[in-house]
């Protein structure tokens, strides 16, 4: 039975396959302008890329999709060039990158890009697969197998910046008062009686005598010394956190009619009881 639902590519923790590595590629439009990065890839039944999702800032939480036909991939530079300009991809349908694309959603994408040069062969191929599947559904079978898929939760770790500490040294000025003792000289003038006797030296001539006075003044000098050091270091702590996420699990509903209900009634009930028993926790299984 041909696959008519485009399956999304899930990114593994090690990105071992080429498709997983392409989920980290950048995306350019047909003019070479950077428009975002790959956030989703959808493959067909042959595991060939059918649609590419672009994560941009145009619509938060959504992914704009374009068909993979005529796109150019540069694995060395990790760039995918879309064959459409930025405005065309900006107005394209957007979907969840982790969900499957149904037939109607694929048809919506093909019909949108047909207005911008997409060949109708891609659209005919998708619709032909849908018609073939519907025809096979209408045929009678003697035996059928339905695979049931179950999702498993894988929790990884990545480092993100949660904050930081910045040390910025600033200079502050303050006034310091420090007392100091300063000496100064003063003049003391006294008149004392002269001694009796003959006068000596110059008489009756002008005479000029200068006596300098001295004083001390404060001289300021500043020395820079290391007062203290501020040291910052990081320490790692480990905390336990529970991650809660919804996973999908496929099941099958059995509807019997006519003789099938009479023949397999008890067997169907036993199968349902077995399935209900497996869905219970291990602690309840033992008790039951």
Instruction: Give the quaternary arrangement of the chains.
Output: single chain
CATH superfamily of the domain at 7-137: Photosynthetic Reaction Center, subunit H, domain 2
Low-confidence stretches: 134-140
Question: For the record, what CATH class of the domain at 7-137 applies?
Answer: Alpha Beta
Helical residues, percent: 10-25%
- The CATH architecture designation of the domain at 7-137 is Alpha-Beta Complex
Might you state the CATH topology name of the domain at 7-137?
Answer: Photosynthetic Reaction Center, Chain H, domain 2
Annotation field: number of helices: 7
Taking Cα atoms only, what radius of gyration do you get, to the nearest Å? 46 Å
- Provide the residue-averaged pLDDT: 79
Order of helices and strands: EHEEEEEEHEHHHHH
Structural class: alpha+beta
> Biggest sheet, open or closed, and with what strands and sense?
8 strands, mixed
Number of strands: 8
Global geometry: rod-shaped
> How much β-strand is present in the residues?
5-15%
Separation of the first and last Cα atoms: 41 Å
């Amino acid at each position: 039975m041909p696959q008519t639902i485009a399956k999304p590519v899930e990114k593994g923790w090690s990105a071992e396959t080429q498709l997983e590595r392409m989920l980290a590629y950048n995306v350019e439009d047909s003019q070479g302008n950077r428009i975002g990065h790959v956030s989703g890839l959808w493959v067909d039944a042959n595991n060939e890329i059918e649609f590419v999702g672009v994560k941009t800032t145009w619509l938060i939480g959504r992914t704009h999709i374009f068909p993979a036909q005529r796109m150019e991939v540069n694995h060395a530079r990790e760039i995918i060039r879309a064959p459409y300009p930025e405005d065309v991809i900006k107005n394209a349908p957007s979907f969840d990158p982790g969900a499957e694309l149904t037939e109607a959603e694929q048809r919506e994408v093909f019909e949108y890009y047909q207005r911008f040069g997409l060949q109708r062969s891609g659209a005919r191929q998708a619709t032909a697969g849908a018609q073939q599947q519907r025809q096979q559904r209408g045929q009678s079978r003697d035996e059928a197998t339905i695979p049931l898929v179950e999702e498993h939760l894988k929790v990884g770790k990545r480092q993100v910046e949660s904050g930081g500490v910045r040390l910025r040294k600033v200079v502050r000025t303050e006034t310091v008062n420090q007392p100091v003792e300063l000496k100064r000289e003063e003049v003391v003038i006294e008149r004392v009686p002269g001694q009796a006797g003959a006068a000596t030296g110059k008489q009756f001539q002008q005479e000029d005598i200068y006596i300098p006075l001295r004083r001390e003044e404060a001289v300021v000098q500043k020395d820079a010394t290391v007062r203290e050091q501020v040291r910052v270091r990081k320490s790692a702590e480990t905390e336990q956190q529970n991650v809660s996420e919804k996973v999908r699990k496929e099941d099958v509903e059995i509807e019997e009619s006519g003789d099938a209900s009479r023949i397999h009634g008890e067997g169907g009930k036993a199968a349902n009881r077995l399935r209900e028993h497996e869905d219970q926790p291990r602690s309840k299984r033992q008790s039951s």
